[in-house]
Amino acid sequence: MVVDRIKASSGLMKTLLGLCLMVCALATASPAMAQGTSMLETIRGANDAFEAEDYQTAYDLYSRAYAELPEPTILYRMGQAAEQLGMYREAIEHYTTYLDEGQDIEFIGRIAEVVPMLREKVPAMLEIASVPAGATIVGVDEAGVETELGQTPATVDVGPGPVTVVLRAQGYEEVIWQEDAQAEGSYAWSPEMVAEPVAMVVEDDLEVRESGGSLGAWGWTTAGLGVAALATGGVFTLLQQSATESVNSYDKRAIGATRDELEGYKNDANGYFETARVTYIAGGVLTAAGLGMIIYQATQGDTTEEQALSFEGGVSSDGGFVGLRGRF
Question: Which Pfam families does UniProt cross-reference here (predicted)?
Fold first, then answer.
């Protein structure tokens, strides 16, 4: 928020008028002083711009005039224009310099009143040097509005108050700096940006296959399941043989031998046998079906239409079943 503008006092206008008259006198005294006419026009233009509240133009013209004629009154007007533009650091500099050079009591009194208030509004300086350099500096206000402030390395004005600064660079994750920046404070931030992870693009093999390729894949899968079922049947056969051997070698006259124990061995042998039989049947059906699909795919080639296939099966103590349902 800019400090309320104070209209030029009659004393200030008299001082500027006297300054203009002095410039006119210098301009008419010698051809070498002809630049005084240009000076007069510059000051008049600055005054008109200030009264029209075009403070940027006024500040630029006052600065040009002060560079040619460092008169304290011009310096004071530069401070006023800078104050209205929100250039608080520059305004304080101009006002405090006037205290060393100027003598107007009214101006000195106002400066003593205004400068402490301006110091509370002077932004802090944030020095940013990112790795890698060249990151875009973005300021984010409390409403979430973003303002680009430049690129690293750079020193930018922030605050005072809560501050959020974001660094962005292509191929890197953004980094954020947040601080309750103090007026006229000084901060440094040197983040090392982290590269964004490379996105892995994995194509679904089933999506890119030709329509005829799905039957071949099902064939190999089915045949593989069939072989696994046959191998499982072999395991149950070994278990059945072991249980049968236990029945045949069971000593009924041995101490602790019971009829229930013998019946248990028999039940185990029968259960293993039935499970092996069902598993062999299922394995044989699956293997045959898989080989059939593989052969069919090989003979039909790319002319094969899209196929659909599903399996149904189950095993219980009473037996089992397996089935294939498909469209070829």
Answer: PEGA (PF08308)
Please, which residues bridge with residue 323 across strands? Answer: 312
* Cα-based angle 147, 153, 158 (whole degrees, multiple of 5): 40
Rounded to two decimals, the pTM is: 0.48
Each residue of 259-289: pLDDT tens digit? 788 788 788 888 888 888 888 898 888 888 8
Domain with CATH 2.60.40 in the chain: 124-189
- Calculate what percentage of the chain has a pLDDT beyond 90: 39
C-alpha span between 107 and 8 (Å, rounded): 10
Q: Which tens digits make up the pLDDT trace of 163-187?
A: 999 999 999 999 999 999 998 899 9
The dotted CATH code for 10-119 is 1.25.40.10
C-alpha span between 66 and 48 (Å, rounded):
17
The correct CATH number of 124-189 out of 2.40.50, 2.60.40, 1.10.10, 1.10.12 is 2.60.40
- Four-point Cα dihedral 241, 242, 244, 248, nearest 10: 130
Exposed/middle/buried for residue 205 (C-beta within 10 Å: 0-12, 13-18, 19+)? exposed
